[in-house]
Design goal:
CATH architecture of the largest domain: Beta Barrel
Number of strands: 36
Largest sheet: 6 strands, antiparallel
CATH topology of the largest domain: Lipocalin
Strand order of the largest sheet: 31-36-32-33-34-35
CATH class of the largest domain: Mainly Beta
Number of helices: 5
Distance between the termini: 36 Å
Radius of gyration: 25 Å
Low-confidence stretches: 183-208, 468-483
């Protein structure tokens, strides 16, 4: 069953599923409870478990719903309609702290008392100074334990965007962290928070995404990653540029923070930024055919990823599964180590460079003209590896092993009716129909691929390559294809 929304509270995942049902799963014990709601319809928009009750909003009404797994009771709490806002489009994120549920909406934030169900604007439950500072701002909220963090995105007197953050430890006292300049943001009136998650996000053109936890504020934009530690007085945190070629998140994407990492989903990919080292990596849904990531939450050891086939687990510091890699994903690192790591790989890199600009010709395999598998065959022949001509044949060719864990320089990527050589950092060398011929491209909008490795095989890999012609195939690449 597909997951459309997800949140995490301590060791419990709250899931909204594509068939309209809901689930609560203990990540520690593995126990699960599910519900097919009676009062709401369709998949939920936002979902949250507060330790005793499951809360959610749907896509067709302005109501907030509550389910108590203990006694099975369901409740509906009517929220006041917002002017000029269609029903079911209001609450995009839910945060629970200090006995209250914060319903983050495009034009306002409502606070619901969990015991009495009383609904109020956030200004009514905050100290006057905090409410005044956040008045007129787009508000975001996050919590961890007893700590609640609020962030207001607004413009200063000159029209420049600023982020104002406040933190409460649960005692009722609030501490202002000061204004944090956000040079990557271009705020516009009426912009709304993005997809549901532990932290609400703001949709900002050009600037992309914002993640908020009780420990840090992270802004990921086209210029890089900006982290603001909530406990420090550093008002000018360093900007870590994105690696060349890595796309920045689009507006409204959710950034999940945990274990010193920032995680987000975009273009059917899962991205991770290590905030301590500045390293980046992307996880591609290529180890298990047919999955597509939809949402992500993080903890100290990794991330839980909601997909079209349920929940998957990625732990970057753990050994990948031999069959399904990192929860069904293949990892592609950036930075040091992304290039060729052996003399054979460096020789392949030099050979690839000599083919740049060779024109495309269907069925070709010479410098007069070459198609995609002809280029792969010719480049590998120069380093002593003999491969067949035909993308479908490459998926099962002898001498190679399937890759399910991590992409390396020289891996062959086989797509439906096409193939390419991976050259590191998300880039590929391949033929492109038209004037470009052989050139560099990227993996960002590719569909499912079979990955085969033909060079730098470990001893076990050589045994597998010599002992069988198969390797894993996908339904999408097992169909006959034209030679390219």
């Amino acid at each position: 069953m597909g997951v459309v929304a997800m949140s995490k509270t301590r060791d419990v995942l709250a899931l909204a599923l594509s068939d309209g049902s809901l689930a609560v799963i203990s990540t520690r014990a593995g126990a699960a409870q599910s519900l097919k709601p009676r009062g709401s319809s369709g998949p939920a928009r936002a979902v949250l478990f507060d330790g005793q009750s499951l809360w959610w909003t749907d896509r067709t009404s302005d109501a907030l719903y509550r389910w108590r797994p203990g006694d099975g009771s369901e409740e509906r709490i009517e929220l006041p309609a917002a002017p000029l806002t269609p029903a079911g489009t209001q609450t995009r994120a839910l945060v629970f702290a200090h006995g209250k549920l914060w319903c983050v909406q495009p034009s306002r934030t409502l606070v619901v008392d969990a015991a009495t169900h009383q609904v109020a604007g956030f200004e009514a439950v905050l100290p006057a100074q905090v409410a005044a500072d956040l008045a007129g701002a787009s508000l975001f909220a996050a919590c961890a334990g007893d700590r609640l963090a609020l962030l207001g995105a607004r413009r200063d007197a000159s029209g420049a965007p600023w982020l104002s953050a406040w933190v409460s430890e649960g005692s009722g006292d609030w501490r202002r962290l000061g204004d944090c300049p956000a040079p990557m943001l271009r705020l516009e009136p009426g912009l709304s928070p993005g997809a549901p998650g532990v932290a609400a996000e703001i949709a900002v053109p050009d600037a992309c995404a914002l993640g908020l936890s009780s420990e840090a504020l992270v802004v990921i934009g086209r210029d890089g990653v900006l982290e603001r530690r909530l406990r420090s007085g550093d008002d000018e945190p360093p900007l870590r540029p994105l690696p060349p070629g890595m796309p920045s998140p689009s507006a409204g994407q959710t950034v999940a923070l945990g274990g010193g990492s920032a995680w987000w989903v975009q273009d059917d990919r899962v991205f991770r930024a290590d905030l301590a080292t500045g390293a980046f990596e992307v996880y591609l849904p290529w180890s298990e055919g047919g999955i597509r990531p939809t949402c992500v939450v993080a903890d100290a050891d990794g991330a839980w990823v909601g997909t079209t086939k349920g929940v998957r687990r990625i732990e970057p510091r753990s050994a990948p599964d031999p069959r399904f890699g990192y929860g069904g994903f293949v990892r592609a690192p950036f930075g040091d180590g992304a290039g060729p790591a052996s003399e054979t790989a460096r020789a392949l890199e030099r050979e690839i460079a000599t083919w740049m600009g060779v024109p495309y010709r269907w069925g070709g395999s010479t410098r007069e003209g070459v198609d995609c598998s002809g280029f792969v065959m010719a480049a590998y022949r120069a380093v002593g590896v003999h491969l067949p001509h035909g993308s479908r044949l490459l998926a099962t060719a002898r001498g190679g092993v399937p890759v399910t864990d991590e992409l390396r320089f020289g891996d062959v990527l086989i797509f439906p009716g096409h193939c390419a050589i991976y050259t590191g950092a998300g880039m590929t060398a391949e033929t492109v129909s038209g004037a470009n011929g052989v050139s560099f491209s990227h993996i960002w909008r590719r569909g499912f691929a079979v990955v085969r490795r033909f060079i730098d095989l470990p001893d076990r890999g050589r045994e597998l390559a010599a002992g069988r012609s198969g390797g894993r195939r996908s339904a999408r690449t097992s169909k006959p294809s034209t030679r390219k």
